[in-house]
Amino acid sequence: MLDGKTIVVTGCSSGIGLETARELTRRGATVIGVDRNPNDELDRFIETDLTDPAAIDELVGRLPDSLDGLCNIAGLPPTAPPELVLKVNALAPQRLTRRLVPKLAGGASITNLGSLAGIGWADAVDQIKDFDKTDFDDVERFCRQYDMSDGGRSYFFSKEVLLTWTMRNRWTWRDRGIRMNVVSPGPVDTPILPDFAATLGARAEEDMRVMDRLGTPQDIAPVIAFLQSDASVWLRGANLTVDGGMSSYIAMTSTGLGD
Fold first, then answer.
1. Which H or E run includes 138?
2. Where are the domains of the chain?
């Protein structure tokens, strides 16, 4: 399914990123992993600090030409400092993608890891527009202005940014056949799950009560692999919600159409 393809995966050393790297490899791809922590399972690994724009630019310089895919999966939880969350979860995927596009082959696929946390993006349009003008050296000002430390807001906002950035760039590179989509998981059993419980408290407990189970990285990775395959060539700017039905539950209960 992915034989002959070379795909870059950020956040490859744990959680969904690690399982995605494994899934892509099982399907025949050559995977170049990127993370701040090592991974010795892969064809090639490059240690990179995604909070540092210079390190991202150096990473791009070390990557080969004619890449077939990019999976932006690296992320920080809501317990991390807000400016770091926005750098890794929102600014880094944008910078890496834009700088890597010239090295992508025609027909390449870009897949971003969003989250159910981004579902409220329509209520944050003004903030998102302001963030468009924000870069790595200005992100602390942005966090203070919008109080991104409040209740893990930095994480929710980072996913709202990534989701809308994906949709807004659905056709940006279509002259070369390059597509970009996003996968939005619900609660997934990964090493950072306790961070969400600590931040969200009763809100997280309510989510758990209406779900049959937590997701696993093995639930998410095959969907990302599908988006990296030629079977997804006409998906552009799509948001695939892999959340056990949680987004449908939210939509129905919030509109009075049922539970």
1. none
2. 6-255
**Domain 6-255: which CATH class?**
alpha beta
Q: Which positions are catalytic?
A: 155
pLDDT for 230 beyond 80: yes
Strand, helix or coil for residue 113: strand
pLDDT of 183-196, one tens digit each?
A: 999 999 887 778 77
Residues 6+ apart with CB under 8 A from 102: none
Our CA angle for 190, 195, 196, nearest 5°, is 85
The C-alpha torsion from 37 through 39 and 42 to 47, rounded to 10°, is: 30
- Phi and psi, residue 28, nearest 5°: 105, 0
Q: Three-state DSSP class for 38?
A: coil
Core vs surface per residue 63-101: b (16+ CB within 10 A) or e: beeebbbbbbbbbbbbebebbebbbbbbbbbbbbbebbb
